[in-house]
Amino acid sequence: MKIKYCLGVALIACAFDASAAEYEIAQRNKAFAPVYLKIKVGDVVNFVNDDPFAHNVYSLSETKSFDVGSYPKGQGKQITFDKPGQVFVECAIHPFMKMKIEVTQ
Ligand SMILES: [Cu+2]
């Protein structure tokens, strides 16, 4: 089915799909770890809460704006980055928690 899709409409989308990687960012001791991550368009980042209290993850960046709300220990939130550029990520519960993702072609 994937092959049909590749031969049909979207070769580029297919290429992204084939090479998409998944990364993990931890929220630990009220900090993102790591605080800088370089990924490629189409990659997925899983933000995992390793603290015994709730965290949030959001971004107002033009490249990718999102807000997943708050979520408890042990849960993760997956975000797909579909455009190149810089994304500044923060936690609404702990305003000092910041990290940056650079999305490249
Ligand atoms: Cu937080």
Q: How much beta, percentage-wise? A: over 45%
Largest sheet: 4 strands, mixed
Classify the helix fraction into a percent range.
10-25%
What would the average pLDDT be, to the nearest integer?
89
Rg estimate, integer Å: 15 Å
- Listing every helix as H and every strand as E from the N terminus to the C terminus, the arrangement reads HHEEEEEEEEE
**CATH-defined superfamily:** Cupredoxins -  blue copper proteins
Overall structural domain count: 1
Concise overview:
With 105 residues, the chain is mainly beta.
Give the helix/strand layout.
Elements: H1 2-7, H2 11-19, E1 22-28, E2 31-33, E3 36-40, E4 44-49, E5 55-60, E6 65-71, E7 76-80, E8 85-90, E9 98-104
Parallel strand pairs: 1-4, 3-9
Antiparallel strand pairs: 1-2, 4-7, 5-6, 8-9
Bound molecules: copper (II) ion.
